[in-house]
Amino acid sequence: MGGWDPRAAVQMRASQERLLSTQEPCLWTGDVQLAEPFKDALWFKFVKRVCGICVWEGI
């Protein structure tokens, strides 16, 4: 989707404006359009941008 380049990442949106608590985060959604028929495996990781620095999921 973004070729592992954080600058090309799919923008995500929070489903709620305020978090209920840090233990119960909200759902994040993003839209992706795939060409049909799509038969390849889809691999992805989440990236969070903190003060301009990209933090990869699982690090």
UniProtKB/TrEMBL annotation:
Q: List the Gene Ontology MF annotations in alphabetical order.
A: carbohydrate binding; protein tyrosine phosphatase activity
Signal peptide span per the entry?
none
Q: Cellular component per GO?
A: cytoplasm; nucleus
List the protein's name. Uncharacterized protein
Q: Which organism is it from?
A: Liparis tanakae (Tanaka's snailfish)
